[in-house]
């Protein structure tokens, strides 16, 4: 068998943002059990980036992170870069979004309380289209 070379969160952020390794490493924070990048850092890139394609990529990454897979308020989670990386390869994000939705609902149920973290409208649209 061949070893699979899976890019790290750092490498994926470097590819998406086009920023240096030092800049990206300085932005990465640990929130709970996952790594993430603050929305403010991405917002600053969107507002100042000269490369329009990279600006759109960072904006799209932010939207996915703040709307679809929300784990830490004001931060874009590592799972979003996995999704974003797959979108670039023309792979549908539906299974990832549903898996994150299931994970969030399961965590709420295990705790016996809490609130759903995810995109309720997207989940509702999926239910309407499948049932």
UniProtKB/TrEMBL annotation:
Domain DUF7745: 10-130
Pfam family, one: DUF7745
InterPro entries: DUF7745 (IPR056647)
Name of this protein: DUF7745 domain-containing protein
